[in-house]
Structure formats: structure tokens, C-alpha cells
């Protein structure tokens, strides 16, 4: 009898193994016509490891240069034109289940995690006027105030002189700046990072430790389904109780509460615009938190990396400062510079675009999926395949940007035909998912930040990198976690 049980168990086990092996081979066969790293086609572990390594942007870039497949049901695409087609209306492509990993409240979608196109479109219609600044009276003024805050912080605490050396981690201060900008816009009052010169309520520390995990779970649909099922609520730590994120959620709840109910406060700010366009109270709470997360690390990375490229390119540094100085002298730059004035400075615009190109700030996989077979770049892509984008490949395309595409050279944006400029600009603006249904809602805000930050810093200060051989710590977790960008700040002698 025991022998029979053993044989039955063994047969059961062998059948299960056989079933799993056949299932794996079936999955493998779907994409066998697309080359990939040896382990990638067999399980998502290859992708998970890449995501957790902090080098996902480079790993996908390397893989994309050689192969196309990066997971059993994943391909990587670095072709701008193909991606623009995917992002088009009625292309048949949708956000894949991966986006559900971007839920902050595990039981409720936000603009980022909404998969259904129709629901997403309706939600965007309520958010767009506020994000675009149309309904917001003091958008530019609020940003100006935070730029002034950053300048004051450097001037008051971190100005080195011939006798005093006060190095500063610029990466952190820039993050304080973007967090204050976004909170001022979202809540009508900045968090106060720049004034406190500290990681208030541990928000940065918490997001830095949770974001890499959160983004890794996005590659595990089965795990997401468990995590986001109300039946397993008891298993999941409540984000509202987490240090940092919980505080921001609490602040969002308070800010939103006064805008709804019997005697709502009515204001012409971003939140006021959301309310006026019919956003529900629960959605307003969610979107306000999303704004903080989506809008702080991305813009901070753009500013840090561009400053790093400027600091390490003396020709660019001098030319940009000369343009700023001439603009100030000739009265073309106010104090602080306006967004419209910045748009008229050709070299500044070239530097901004070149900085975004060299170090794309948002590098998450952002996969799209189709429920019918499609052809991408002439390759057959079976229904249900995740197509991830690879910004590093797109932004270093020699075809689009020239043979020296690997070099930070803002001059490539000058003295070219309007058609060539348009083609390059269209490609760089893909970093905001421009030209797609999922375009970044904060693009206007980010552009205003960039238009102002470099001018207001470089008209006053000089920046010297302490260790050009090891300029920063940078960990890629879809957005970048960056620190230790130590610089010396001195007052300019002009
Ligand atoms: C340089 C800075 C930024 C970059 C590179 C960037 C990039 C992106 C990208 C690539 C997406 C599209 C994701 C997709 O394909 O699904 C996106 C969406 C979004 N971004 Fe940004 N972003 C930046 C700044 C901001 C700022 C400052 C805010 C807030 C004020 C913001 C708020 C959002 C929101 C809410 C979405 C979701 C849009 C939707 O699904 O309809 N972003 N961003």
C-alpha cells in the first residue's frame, strides 16, 4: 500500500513538472523568433534582477542593442517611431498590467495605474486644465518662490569663500526644491524642505527604500493580484501608516477635505481646478499624492544630471553663462527669469534638451500590450506581449542625433534645419511620453522648473564638482535615487 501511495505521488509530481516544462516551452515558442539573453525567455527573474540591480536603464540599453526579447512575454523597443505608433489613438495598444504596480492605494487606481483607456481619458480630462496651469492663478509665482528658496539656501548656508569651505550635496538640495515646488502646487503651501534643509517626516528616506521594491513587484502580476486583493488586506502594510508616505497621504487628505463638503473652500489652484472639473474626493486625494511622487524625483534628476553635464563640460558651462550674462545685461532676463524669457534663450533651450537626452529621468519599463497580434519594427509580436520602451537607446540614436550622439553637445540643437530640429525635439519630448495618450501631465510644470533653475543658479553662483571621478551616487529604480553630488558653491565675480 505505501508503495502505491509513493508511486501515485511520484506520478503526480512528474506530471506537474512535465506540465510546467511544457507550459514554459509554449511561452518560449511565442517569441522564439526574437533573440534575447540566455535566461530571459524562461522566467521573469532576469527582469526582476535587472530592476533590483539599480542599473535597469543600462541593462535594458545593453540588451536592446543586441537583442529584442527581455522576458518570457517581454520585448524591449528602442525605436522612437515604432513607439509613437504604439502610443497613437486606436493603435490597439494599452497599458499592460505592470502599471497596476504603480497603485499607491492598493485598492484604488490613479492616473498612472489606470489601465482602461476610456476611464483614463475621462480622468485626464479632469486633471489636464489644472496641470496645464490654465485654471491656476499663481503657478509661475509659486515656482519662483521655490527657486528663490533654493538660491537662499545655498547663499545662506553653503557659500564657500577663500577662507571657508562648505561643500554641499547638490542632489539633495535639488530634491528639496522639486518637493517644495510640487507640494506648493498640490497643496497651496510648500512642505518647507528648503527652509528646514532636512528630509521632513523621512519622506525621502522612505520613498528611496520602498520605490525599488514597489517597481519590482510590478514585474510580478501574480504577486500584485494578491497584494491588491481586499481578501489579503491583513497581509499588506498600510501605506497610510508608513513614515513619510503616510504623512504625505495625511496632508493630502487634509488639503482635499476642506475643498469638499457643505462649505467647501474654493481656490483657483491646481486642486481647485481638479474639483471644478468634477474629480471625486477620493480621486483628488490619490492624485495629489501621485503628483508628489511623479513630479519630484523626475524633475530633480533632470536638474541634477544636466548640472553635472554642464559642470563637466567647460565649453558648455562658459557659453551658457555668457548667454545668461548677456541676457541680464541687455534686460532680456528679469529677476527671476520668466518662462517666456527663458524660451527665447537658444543656448539654454539647447542645454535643457541635451541634458534630458543624455540622462532620461523617467526610465521605467512603461510596457504596452495588445490583445491582438501586431507587427513592431517589422517583427511579429504575439498578442499579450509586453513591449517596454528603452529611453537610453532612443535618446542615443545616431540616426536622429548624429554620429556623436553619445556626447553631451548642446550645439547639435543650433544651426540646423527646422525639420531636423523638429525630429530631434519630438524624440526628446518622448521622455514626457509626448505624442501618446499617456503624455506626462506635469510636463508644463517640469519645463517651467527647468527654464528657471539653471539661469537663477548660474547667474549668481559657480559650481565646482568635488570629485569628478566619482561625481554622485545614482541608483536606477525606474526613477533615479541620487545623492552625494558634492559640489563647492562660490559667488560669481562678475
Ligand atoms: C523631467 C520631468 C518629468 C519627466 C521626464 C516625466 C515623465 C513622465 C512619463 C514618461 C510619463 C508617462 C508614463 C506612461 O507612459 O504611462 C509621465 C506621466 C505622468 N507624469 Fe510626469 N514626468 C516629469 C515630471 C512630472 C511632474 C513635475 C509632474 C507633476 C506635476 C508629473 C506628473 C505626471 C503624471 C500625473 C503622469 C500620469 C499621466 C497619465 O497617466 O495620464 N510628471 N511622466
UniProtKB/TrEMBL annotation:
Iron recorded as keyword: yes
Keyword Metal-binding: yes
Keywords: Heme, Iron, Metal-binding
A Gene Ontology molecular function term of the record: iron ion binding
Residues that hold heme according to the record: 440
Signal peptide (UniProt feature, chain positions): none
InterPro entries: Cyt_P450 (IPR001128), Cyt_P450_E_grp-I (IPR002401), Cyt_P450_sf (IPR036396), Cytochrome_P450_monoxygenase (IPR050121)
Cofactor field: heme
Name of the protein in its database record: Cytochrome P450 71A20
Lineage: Eukaryota, Fungi, Dikarya, Ascomycota, Pezizomycotina
Amino acid at each position: 500500500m505505501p508503495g502505491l501511495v509513493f508511486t501515485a505521488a511520484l506520478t503526480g509530481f512528474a506530471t506537474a513538472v512535465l506540465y510546467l516544462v511544457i507550459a514554459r516551452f509554449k511561452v518560449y515558442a511565442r517569441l522564439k523568433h526574437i533573440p534575447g539573453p540566455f535566461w530571459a525567455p524562461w522566467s521573469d527573474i532576469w527582469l526582476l534582477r535587472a530592476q533590483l540591480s539599480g542599473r535597469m536603464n543600462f541593462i535594458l540599453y545593453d540588451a536592446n542593442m543586441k537583442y529584442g526579447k527581455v522576458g518570457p512575454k517581454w520585448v524591449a523597443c528602442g525605436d522612437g517611431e515604432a513607439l509613437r505608433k504604439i502610443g497613437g489613438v486606436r493603435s490597439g495598444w494599452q497599458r499592460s498590467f505592470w502599471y497596476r504596480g504603480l497603485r499607491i492605494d492598493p485598492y484604488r487606481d490613479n492616473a498612472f495605474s489606470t489601465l482602461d483607456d476610456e476611464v483614463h481619458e475621462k480622468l485626464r480630462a479632469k486633471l489636464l486644465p489644472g496641470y496645464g496651469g490654465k485654471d491656476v492663478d499663481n503657478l509661475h509665482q509659486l515656482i519662483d518662490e521655490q527657486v528663490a528658496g533654493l538660491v537662499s539656501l545655498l547663499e545662506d548656508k553653503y557659500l564657500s569663500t577663500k577662507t571657508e569651505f562648505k561643500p554641499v550635496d547638490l542632489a539633495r538640495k535639488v530634491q528639496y526644491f522639486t518637493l517644495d515646488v510640487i507640494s506648493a502646487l498640490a497643496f497651496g503651501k510648500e512642505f518647507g524642505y528648503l527652509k528646514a534643509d532636512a528630509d521632513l517626516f523621512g519622506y525621502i528616506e522612505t520613498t528611496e527604500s520602498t520605490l525599488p521594491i514597489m517597481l519590482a513587484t510590478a514585474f510580478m502580476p501574480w504577486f500584485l493580484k494578491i497584494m491588491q486583493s481586499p481578501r489579503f488586506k491583513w497581509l499588506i502594510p498600510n501605506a497610510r501608516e508608513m513614515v513619510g508616505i503616510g504623512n504625505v497621504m495625511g496632508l493630502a487628505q487634509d488639503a482635499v477635505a476642506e475643498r469638499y463638503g457643505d462649505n467647501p473652500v474654493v481656490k483657483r489652484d491646481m486642486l481647485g481646478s481638479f474639483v471644478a472639473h468634477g474629480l471625486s474626493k477620493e480621486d483628488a486625494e490619490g492624485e495629489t499624492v501621485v503628483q508628489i511622487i511623479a513630479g519630484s524625483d523626475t524633475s530633480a534628476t533632470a536638474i541634477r544630471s544636466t548640472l553635472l553635464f554642464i559642470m563637466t563640460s567647460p565649453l558648455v558651462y562658459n557659453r551658457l553663462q555668457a548667454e545668461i550674462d548677456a541676457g541680464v545685461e541687455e534686460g532680456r532676463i528679469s529677476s527671476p527669469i520668466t518662462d517666456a524669457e527663458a524660451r527665447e534663450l537658444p543656448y539654454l533651450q539647447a542645454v535643457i534638451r541635451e541634458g534630458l537626452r543624455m540622462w532620461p529621468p523617467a526610465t521605467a519599463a512603461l510596457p504596452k500590450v495588445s490583445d491582438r497580434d501586431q507587427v513592431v519594427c517589422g517583427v511579429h509580436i504575439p498578442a499579450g506581449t509586453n513591449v517596454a520602451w528603452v529611453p537610453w537607446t532612443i535618446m542615443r540614436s545616431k540616426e536622429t542625433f548624429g554620429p556623436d550622439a553619445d556626447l553631451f553637445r548642446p550645439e547639435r540643437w543650433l544651426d540646423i534645419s527646422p525639420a531636423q530640429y523638429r525630429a530631434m525635439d519630438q524624440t526628446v519630448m518622448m521622455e514626457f511620453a509626448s505624442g501618446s495618450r499617456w503624455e506626462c501631465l506635469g510636463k508644463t510644470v517640469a519645463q517651467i522648473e527647468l527654464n528657471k533653475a539653471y539661469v537663477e543658479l548660474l547667474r549668481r553662483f559657480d559650481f565646482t564638482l568635488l570629485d569628478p571621478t566619482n561625481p554622485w551616487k545614482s541608483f536606477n529604480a525606474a526613477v533615479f535615487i541620487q545623492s552625494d553630488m558634492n559640489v563647492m558653491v562660490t559667488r560669481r565675480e562678475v
